[in-house]
Amino acid sequence: MLGTIIKDLKNIFGQFIYYFVLMVVFMAVSVITENIYYYMGAIVFFCVAVPLSALAYDEKDNWDKFALASGVTRNQLAVSRYLLGLVIFLPMWAISFILVLAGGMWDIENLSVLLSYGGIALLTLDAVLPVIFKIGVEKGRIIYIFTILIVIALGALLGFLVETIGGASVLYSSVAVLALGVVGFFLSLKIACNIYKKKDF
């Protein structure tokens, strides 16, 4: 399973450099404007875009069929996709805390943003991956775009709530969103494993 993740990272290395440059730009914008929303929105996009790119390569090359013939189980294939998402998400999310601290932006409102966007990123991953496994990458891109539009709307709503309400109530809500993302991750993984069990390659 580790080999599958390494293979995915090698396949998308060229795109990864492009993503990295974009992330640096979003980091700089967030620090200069003292607005962490730019970087957090990028996290939501990239933590799904990278696994999606890897899946597109696999679908094109019929990798899953080869992997199964090589002894990789269906569950391992499903789990490796989710782990790839975490490999992208967790470091980027950790960096967001460093940015807020280093940029002198640490307060309860920005902490709420970090936690809630962490949950939103996980929920996006939770929603998109099973759909991709079921209908394929090309058709799934439409769902992904639609999901990103929903995330943008939620982000705007979150910004409004943070500005107007603030305080502990928003922080508690952000923790709830993060918890929902974590619980949804395992539920989504279970659904994905069931899809893989029935999938023809």
TrEMBL record:
It comes from Candidatus Borkfalkia excrementigallinarum. Keywords: Membrane, Transmembrane, Transmembrane helix. This is ABC-2 transporter permease. The chain crosses the membrane at residues 12-32, 38-57, 78-102, 114-135, 142-162, 168-189.
